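Write out the 3D structure for:
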Amino acid sequence: MKEKILLFLIIFLSINCYSQNNFKRGYYINNSDEKIECFIKTNSRLNPKELTYKLTEDLNEQIETIKSVKEFGIYDELKYVRRTIDIDTSSNILANLSNDLYPNFKEKEIFLNVLIEGKANLYSFENKSIIRYFYNVNNSDIIQLVYKRYKKINENVVRKNEEYKRQLWNDLKCENISINEANKLEYKKQNLVDFFIKYNTCSRSEFLRFDKKGQKSVFNITIRPGLTSSSLSLHENSTRKTTDFDDESGFRLGLEAEFIINSIKANKWAIFVEPTYQFYKSRKEWQNASGQQTYYFNIDYKSVEIPIGIRHYFSLNRKSKIFANGAILFDIPFNSSLNSNFSPGHLDIETKFNFAFGLGYKYHNKFSLELRSMTNRNLTSHYLNWKADYNTLSIIIGYTLL
C-alpha cells in the first residue's frame, strides 16, 4: 500500500509540476527594435495586457508592460503586435445592446493577436466582454472588421450591422472569391481564417498561419496503381561473377495514407505510408563453352513494400502543385524464390530496408502523377557469398478517395 501511495504522489506531483511549466520558447522585440530570446508564459486565450517571461527556464519571472514591448511571440504557435488603434467598445451582451447601429470607436493601445500573415493579414482581439477582428492588405493601416448587434428603440428584435462583409468584398477581391461567399461569411474566427487563407492562396501569396489550435488535420487516402521497370544483378562473391537479368516491366498497386502536418507554412509538409504489392519475374540462360549444356537462373519475386516517408508540396497555383518525397522502404517477400540448375540450386529471398525518392504533380488535391526511384535492395541479404541487387523505377498515378 505504501508503494502505491508513493507512486500516486510521484505521478501527481509530476503532473502538477508539468501544469505549472507553461513557459514556451519565444521572443519579444522592445522599443529599440532589439529581439530578446526568452520563454513566454501562456495561460489565457484572452489578449494580454503585459508580457510575462523568463530569460532562461531557471530564472525568475519578469514582466514587461505594453509600453515597452512592440511584438512578442512563441515560435510556430502565436504572435502579438502592439498597435494604437480604433476599436469598437460596444457591448455584445443582450441586455446592454445599444440602439445605435454604428460602432462606438475608441482609440486604444492593445496587443493584436496575429492569425494570418501574408498579403492580407487577419488579427483578433478578445477580452472578457468583446471579440473583435481586424485586417489590412499590402501593409495598409490596420482597421476593424465591423460587426455590431443593436436594438432599435421600441423594438425587441436584435439587428446586426454586418459592414465587415462589404469591407472584405471591396478589399479582398480575387477570381476565386464570389460576392455570395462574402455575403454568407460569418463573423467567427474559423470562418474568417479560412476566408483569408483562400484569398492569400488565390493571390499566390506566401502566408503564415498562427492559429494552430483552429487548424484541422488533413488525412488523405489515395489508391496508387502504377507501372514498374525493374532489374536484377546477381553477384557471386567467391568467383566475382555477375549475372545481369533483363529489365522487366510490371505493375504495382498501392494504398497510401497521407497525414498533412499542421503547420504555419500553409500545410506544405506531409507524412505518408503506402503498403504496395509488386512483383518481378525473369530468367537468365547461358551455355557452357562447348554449347552442350544450358545453365539458368530463374527468379520469381513477389512482395509487399511498405514505404514510410515525408513529402513536401510546392504550390504552382490554386489548383496545381508539385511535390518531392523521400521514404525508408521495408519489404515483405512471399512465395518468392531464386533457382538455378547448378549449385547453389536454390537461394531464399530475404531483404532489408532501402530508400525511395519521388517527384510528382498533384491536381485539385485529387489526381496525382509521380516518378519514383529506389536505391538497390539486396534480395539475398542473409547470404555471405551472394548479393542480388534489385532496383525499380516506377510511374505511379493516384486518385484520392478521401
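The chain has two domains: 76-214, 218-400.
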